[in-house]
């Protein structure tokens, strides 16, 4: 057992979460700070990096107040890949551009793809250029904000920004770097200088480390600001979905992690490099691992939107109403593409569709349709993973959406897959704490976070969902021209 408690903090899309975890993996305390992203223009999704550091300090002070046990290490993670550009003195030059939900760089994606070649980019970087590619967003800043770009000297993401503020180290983990397409070579596992020099010649790209490696130790100044002990180690950290996978031990070959959050994310661990136009191929969070990943642009974001729109007091009420609605949501079918769609459509101009509405439909039917829409999207991604050679042997669910059981049951019924749910499913912050604990001693996710339950598909519901899934797949091509025209009007 490790000698001290550890802290994990994750900077997410809609909130920052922190946990204080005991030496045996017990969740001692947790805290949350909600926040909102900025959407200054259609397709633009940003956040002020000052929020990340302010909320980190606030979370840590709460977690360590009133007789908390001594803290021996800190783990960090965050949404990504993001683009935070600073000057040489680490002053942010503009708000951070967020991951694939930000779709602004379509022109840069086309130009860079034409210049370097789609197949060459995929062969070298693992993935083609899409809204997920941080390198294309750096190119957008160069094109659209040249006065900002002329002053830019460093590149950060939420986890590496926290590391910088805590330790003074300028580093980035290999996994995050592998999502800066086309700047990182996934075979050589290093920055690819020829393309980096063309896209961002004046940026000092950060030295690379693995997620679980120590980035440095808490400085005296950071200790003063946060209340953490000076000198304790801080992990390099990684993107939130990969920290979530680590938190539930889903990083062995054949594992698939499903992250139920503001967006739905899938991470499948593979033995060798697999590439596909409709998925992302990355290096893993741990040395020697590779992943094939997918991500929906919205999932929990849609359920949150429905809660606010309908004035529901809380999610528990909505879940009860959705459960009463029953399989198929009384004939409603939703496309959950409210912010475009990432994998496997790769269509930033996709939009949400709700088909089959009548005056008799209820709030519970709408909420059920949203949960089912996410499940259909998961199945679509699983089929895309397997079509290119993925071999899914185990599915592990994690994140806030695993609470209440209904959503995970619907996903199992739609996909026909069992899902493990671990004792602690709080997600990335717990994964950061696990990485921190591993700096202090020999700790495994299976010991820290054992399986709590296994969600098993219901054969009767699965048979009904098989028919509905066919309608779901038909609905996108049937409505694509209309929603693309509407998307064009929205961007005027």
Automatic annotation (TrEMBL):
Keyword entries, A-Z: Carbohydrate metabolism, Kinase, Transferase, Xylose metabolism
Transmembrane segments: none
The Carbohydrate kinase FGGY C-terminal domain, residue ranges: 257-437
Residues in Carbohydrate kinase FGGY N-terminal domain copies: 6-245
Database matches in SUPFAM superfamilies: Actin-like ATPase domain (SSF53067)
GO terms assigned for molecular function: kinase activity
Family per record: Belongs to the FGGY kinase family.
PANTHER family, A to Z: SUGAR KINASE, XYLULOSE KINASE
Protein name: FGGY-family carbohydrate kinase
Organism annotation: Streptomyces olivaceiscleroticus
């Amino acid at each position: 057992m490790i000698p001290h408690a550890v802290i994990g903090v994750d900077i997410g899309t809609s909130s920052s979460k922190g946990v204080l975890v005991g030496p045996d993996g017990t969740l001692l305390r947790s805290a949350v700070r909600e926040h909102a992203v900025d959407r200054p223009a259609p397709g633009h999704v940003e956040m002020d990096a000052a929020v990340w550091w302010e909320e980190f300090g606030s979370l840590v002070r709460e977690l360590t107040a009133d007789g908390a046990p001594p803290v021996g290490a800190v783990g960090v993670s965050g949404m990504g890949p993001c683009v935070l550009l600073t000057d040489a003195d680490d002053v942010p030059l503009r708000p951070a551009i967020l991951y694939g939900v930000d779709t602004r760089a379509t022109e840069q994606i086309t130009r860079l793809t034409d210049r370097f070649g789609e197949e060459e980019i995929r062969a070298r970087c693992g993935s083609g250029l899409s809204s997920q590619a941080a390198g294309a967003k750096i190119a957008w800043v160069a094109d659209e904000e040249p006065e900002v770009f002329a002053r830019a000297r460093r590149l950060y993401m939420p986890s590496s920004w926290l590391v910088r503020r805590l330790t003074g180290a300028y580093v980035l983990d290999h996994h995050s770097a592998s999502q800066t397409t086309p700047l990182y070579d996934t075979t050589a596992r290093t920055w690819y200088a020829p393309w980096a020099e063309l896209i961002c010649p004046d940026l000092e790209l950060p030295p690379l480390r693995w997620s679980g490696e120590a980035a440095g130790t808490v400085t005296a100044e950071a200790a003063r600001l946060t209340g953490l002990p000076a000198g304790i180690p801080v992990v390099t950290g990684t993107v939130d979905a990969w920290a979530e996978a680590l938190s539930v031990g889903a990083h062995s070959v054949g594992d698939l992690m499903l992250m139920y959050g503001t967006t739905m994310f899938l991470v499948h661990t593979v033995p060798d490099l697999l590439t596909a136009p409709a998925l992302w191929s990355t290096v893993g969070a741990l040395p020697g691992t590779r992943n094939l990943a997918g991500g929906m642009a919205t999932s929990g974001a849609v359920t949150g939107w429905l809660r606010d729109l309908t004035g529901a007091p809380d999610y528990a009420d909505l879940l009860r109403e959705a459960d009463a609605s029953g399989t198929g949501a009384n004939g409603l079918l939703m496309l959950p593409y409210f912010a475009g769609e990432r994998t496997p459509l790769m269509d930033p101009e996709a939009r949400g569709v709700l088909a089959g509405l009548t005056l008799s439909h209820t709030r519970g039917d709408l909420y059920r349709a949203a949960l089912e829409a996410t499940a259909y999207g998961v199945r679509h991604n699983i089929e895309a993973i397997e079509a290119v050679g993925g071999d899914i042997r185990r599915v592990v669910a994690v994140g806030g959406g695993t609470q209440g059981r209904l959503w995970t049951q619907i996903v199992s019924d739609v996909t026909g897959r069992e899902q493990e749910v671990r004792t602690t499913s709080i997600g990335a912050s717990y994964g950061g704490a696990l990485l921190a604990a591993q700096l202090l001693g020999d700790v495994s996710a299976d010991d820290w976070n054992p399986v709590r339950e296994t969600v098993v598909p219901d054969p009767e519901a699965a048979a009904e969902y098989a028919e509905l899934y066919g309608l779901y797949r038909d609905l996108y091509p049937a409505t694509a021209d209309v929603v693309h025209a509407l998307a064009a009007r929205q961007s005027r």
